[in-house]
Amino acid sequence: MPQARKVALVSGGSRGLGAELVSGFLDRQYGVATLSRTKTTFITNMLRARKGRHFHWSQVDGRDHEALRAFVKEVGERLGRIDVLVNNAGIVMEGILPTMRTRDIIETVEVNLTAALVLAQACSRLMLRQGSGCIVNVSSVHAIRGHEGVAVYSATKAALDGLTRSLARELGPRQIRVNSVAPGYFDSDMVSDMAEAQKQRIARRTPLGRLARIDEVANAIHFLTSDQASFITGQTLVVDGGITC
C-alpha cells in the first residue's frame, strides 16, 4: 500500500553529500530510496537499522539506463510515490581536454549528465501522475566560473543548470518545481586529494574564509525541497561562501 509519508529519491547516496541527504530526509520523516555503484558501510548500517522500513537501496550503475528506469519503477511500487528527486551522483574526471582519453570524457558525461536526464524523465512521469513533485540537480561552481583541468566536469554541471531552467518551464504548470544547487568547495571527492596548502589558498579566496561543511550544502538542498521554497523554481542556488562573487 502507498505510504502516507513523502518519498525522496537520492542518486549516489552511499557516501559524502548523498549520505548526508539520505540521513537528512529520513530525519525529516521521508521515505528514502537511493542507488549507488557500491554498497558502502553507510548503506549496510542503514539497511540494518531500518530493516527495510522507509528505506530502499539498490546497486545500480548510473551508465545503465534501463537499470535506472527499473529502479524508479521499483521505488514507485515499493514506496508508493516519489515526491523528491535529487540528482546527486557524479564523478570528477580531472585532466586537460586535449590530452584526455575519449572514454573518460564519455564516462563523465554518462554519469554526471545522462544519468540525471534519465532519472529526471522517469521520476517526472510519476510526478505528473501525482500532480506534484520537486527535482534538485546538484551542480557546481565550476558551471559558473572556469578552472583548468575540469573542462568536461564543468560542461556536465553547466548542462544540469540548463536542464533545470528548461525543465522548470515544462513541469511548472503541473506544480513540479526544478532547481539546482551549485556547491563550492566542501568535504567531497573533489577536495579529498588536495594538499592542505591548496585548501588554505581556496579558503583565503573565499569571502567567508573557509570551505563549506557538508551539512551546509545539504541544508540548501533540503530547503529547496521543502514547502518553504514552494514558489522557487528554475533557479540555481550557489552555496560557495562567496567565492564566485
Summarize the structure.
The chain is α/β, with parallel strands linked by helices and 245 residues long. It has helices at 16-27, 41-50, 65-79, 102-130, 151-171, 189-192, 196-205, 214-225, and strands at 7-11, 31-36, 55-59, 84-87, 133-138, 176-183, 236-239.
- CATH class equals Alpha Beta
**Average predicted local confidence, pLDDT:** 94
* Helix/strand structural class: alpha/beta
Low-pLDDT windows of residues: none
Order of helices and strands: EHEHEHEHEHEHHHE
| Name given to the CATH homologous superfamily | NAD(P)-binding Rossmann-like Domain
Assigned CATH architecture: 3-Layer(aba) Sandwich
Count of DSSP strands: 7
Q: Tell me the overall shape.
A: globular
Structure description:
The protein has helices spanning about 15-25, 40-50, 65-80, 100-130, 150-170, 190, 195-205, 215-225; strands spanning about 5-10, 30-35, 55-60, 85, 135-140, 175-185, 235-240. By secondary structure, the chain is an alpha/beta fold. It has a single domain, classed as NAD(P)-binding Rossmann-like Domain (Rossmann fold), CATH 3.40.50.720. A seven-stranded parallel β-sheet has the order 3-2-1-4-5-6-7, with helices on both faces. Strand 4 (about 85), helix 4 (about 100-130) and strand 5 form a beta-alpha-beta unit. The mean pLDDT is about 95.
